[in-house]
Write a structure and sequence with these properties.
Helix content is about 25%, strand content about 20%. With about 625 residues, it is α/β, with parallel strands linked by helices. It folds into four domains: about 20-190, P-loop containing nucleotide triphosphate hydrolases (Rossmann fold); about 205-285, Winged helix-like DNA-binding domain superfamily/Winged helix DNA-binding domain (Arc Repressor Mutant, subunit A), CATH 1.10.10; about 295-440, Ribonuclease Inhibitor (Leucine-rich repeat, LRR (right-handed beta-alpha superhelix)); about 490-615, no CATH class. The strands form six sheets. It has a seven-stranded parallel β-sheet with strand order 9-10-12-14-15-16-17, with helices on one face. Strands 18-19-20-21-22-24 form a six-stranded parallel β-sheet, with no helix packed on it.
């Protein structure tokens, strides 16, 4: 007996009172998503008689959707439909013929084969099946389709709505991004109640991570690594033997992502992991966190006296009287200034004048996390010396001109960030005393921040995105990089024109830094405006580059402002750079020989700028 499928031709149908919902669903179906999985699930929730089936018919026959997808499938489900019957229906629809196969694995493989590399649109009507494992299995197969594929489900079940509204990942499933359209208000409220149950069964360390996220406004774009470092300072991340603390934190984030407490942001790209938190999650997390965590978006109201973790959220410049707002607090552990990130790029100018910051630092010596980004401070109060428990300090996008030497007494400090502080030119001379420092970031768009002698003693450093090799006796030389064996991520090594011998360059020990993934070697600020007739400088540059051979694990390499006439042998040796994926050669204007890059087995991206090369090697 042939199974029936709904495929009603109603192209001219108008839905009374539902055109706005149809348009909203259309937008979500057609939305390009860069991150996450291949398949998006859109759940339409409403009771009997609310027009769900008619809505699916209109969407199925919409010409714009016909043009946008390689394949459209419409399936009528029922309470008696098991997973074998569903996959058989999909196969039958695709073949336009009866299918008598009863082997589930065979049917799953047939569906995968049919949708592989195809952008498909699947409509499931009466999708009221409340079995978690059922949907896990279905969506694992459907994720074989091409990116941009979508499943539109119509259901009466609040449970299915919750499973799909935040996606099966919310209770241990996997794979799909989801959106939910509610046709009834009480369905929304019921889903929040069910999500509360999902939150309740989370392990305590993940609950603590989510509670910290309540300090950020709804719609905030979260950066994974930024949040992990904050969680570490907050004590959320528990040490695991044999694992880096940051790696454990990333695993926490990924687990919350898997459970759909985070979702990929539309601003996700290849270089940055950007995420948002679903509005339903905010409705669950905020109420259970507000007794210790407080997000101040109204800068005139007082802060409850039991608060331990405080954030001030502001997108326009204004003054905040800190003492009058925090006078009732006792043991403040976290103080954050948060700029609402509605867009993919941060606003890089101050938005807050913190009046009374010095007194706050004097009063709250219990602070562990202090983020003053976007404030107009020009100097950090010397009362910072009293924050003996401080583990995280951010001064990003401030007007700070110098850091006090008292900062170097903070023996527990693990993260120090001073990104794009345009007036900051150097760190205190005693920075070498910050022996627990794991992350030091003083990146500037223009210029650089001098590092003092002794940076090589900070052997706990994991990230140091910018290191400027100084040629004078007042600041650190390139040899101080040699002892920083734990460095990972990216490194921009600038000022290489000040390194005068290959043996000196070799002291940086780049070849031993196995965790570095992205390396930039830069002469003369990467400029093309150099003396092309200085043969001695050319020869030195060649020796310096030869001595800066990286570890075989390196994936991205950029060479800027190099004035040698030839590239070293390790740049064209498959055994030296077996993992290199991307290579940039910028302003290498004296080079007369191009390296034999065809020998690099993993190379996919080659970027050449301002070149003056004349022949190939």
């Amino acid at each position: 007996m042939r199974l029936n499928h709904i495929c009603v031709q109603q192209a001219g149908l108008k839905l009374l009172g539902r055109d706005n919902i149809r348009q909203k669903i259309m937008e979500k179906i057609l939305l390009d998503r860069n991150g996450g999985s291949n398949c998006t699930v859109i759940c339409i929730n409403g009771g009997s008689g609310h027009g769900k089936t008619s809505l699916l018919h209109v969407l199925y026959d919409d010409q714009q959707l016909m043009d946008a997808f390689d394949q459209r499938i419409s399936i009528q489900m029922s309470d008696k439909l098991d997973i074998l019957m569903l996959f058989r229906k999909i196969v039958e629809f695709a073949m336009s013929d009866h299918c008598s196969i009863t082997n589930l694995t065979c049917l799953q493989e047939m569906v995968k084969e049919d949708i592989a590399d195809k952008k498909f649109l699947l409509f499931l009507d009466d999708a009221d099946m409340e079995d978690q494992q059922f949907w896990n299995s279905v969506l694992e197969v459907l994720n074989a389709g091409a990116k941009g594929s979508a499943v539109v489900m119509a259901t009466r079940s609040v449970t299915v709505t919750a499973l799909r509204g935040l996606d099966l990942k919310a209770i241990g499933g996997l794979l799909c991004q989801t959106e939910t359209i509610f046709l009834e208000k009480d369905m929304f409220e019921g889903s929040v109640m069910l999500l509360q149950l999902f939150y309740d069964v989370l392990p305590i360390h993940l609950k603590k991570c989510l509670a910290f996220c309540s300090l950020f406004p709804e719609g905030y774009i979260f950066d994974k690594i930024h949040m992990v470092l904050l969680w570490i300072s907050h004590g959320c991340v528990r040490p695991v033997e044999g694992c880096e603390l940051e790696g454990v934190g990333v695993a926490y984030f990924n687990e919350l992502l898997r459970r759909s407490f985070f979702q990929y942001s539309s601003f996700q790209n290849d270089k940055d992991d950007k995420f948002v938190m679903h509005e339903l999650i905010y409705n669950v997390v905020e109420p259970v966190s507000r007794n210790r965590y407080f997000k101040s978006e109204d800068l005139l109201s007082s802060v409850p006296e039991n608060i331990l973790h405080l954030s001030i959220v502001s997108s326009q410049f204004q003054a905040v009287q800190l003492m009058s707002r925090t006078e009732k607090l006792k043991d403040l552990q976290t103080f954050l200034v948060v700029q609402p990130e509605w867009q993919p790029y941060n606003i890089c100018f101050p938005t807050l004048n913190l009046v009374g910051l010095d007194n706050v630092l004097l009063n709250f010596t219990t602070l562990e996390t202090l983020d003053l980004r976007y404030t107009d401070i020009e100097e950090l109060p010397i009362s910072i010396v009293g924050l003996r428990n401080l583990q995280y300090l951010s001064l990003n996008y401030t007007s700070v001109r110098a850091l006090p030497s008292e900062l170097c007494c903070l023996s527990n400090l693990q993260t120090l960030k001073a990104n794009d502080c345009r007036f900051l030119t150097k760190l205190p001379g005693d920075a070498k005393k910050l022996l627990k420092l794991r992350h030091l970031d003083v990146t500037k768009e223009l210029g650089y921040v001098h590092l003092p002698h002794g940076v090589g003693q900070l052997t706990e450093l994991r990230t140091l995105p910018v290191f400027h090799a100084s040629g004078d006796s007042l600041h650190c030389s390139i040899s101080e990089l040699g002892s920083l064996h734990n460095m990972r991520g990216c490194l921009r090594l600038s000022g290489l024109e000040s390194v005068k011998t290959g043996s000196k360059a070799q002291e940086s020990n780049l070849k031993d830094k196995q965790h570095l993934q992205d390396l930039t070697l830069q002469w003369h600020n990467g400029s093309i405006d150099i003396d092309v007739d200085d043969e001695e400088a050319d020869s030195v540059a060649e020796k310096v580059l030869e001595s800066h051979q990286p570890h075989v694990n390196l994936q991205d390499l950029a060479i800027r402002g190099y004035q040698g006439s030839a590239f070293p042998a390790w740049m064209q040796d498959s055994s030296s750079l077996p993992s290199l994926v991307s290579l940039t050669l910028d302003s290498c204007c004296n080079c007369t020989q191009f390296p034999a890059l065809a020998l690099l087995p993993s190379l996919k991206f080659l970027n050449i700028r301002k070149r003056c090369m004349t022949r190939n090697g």
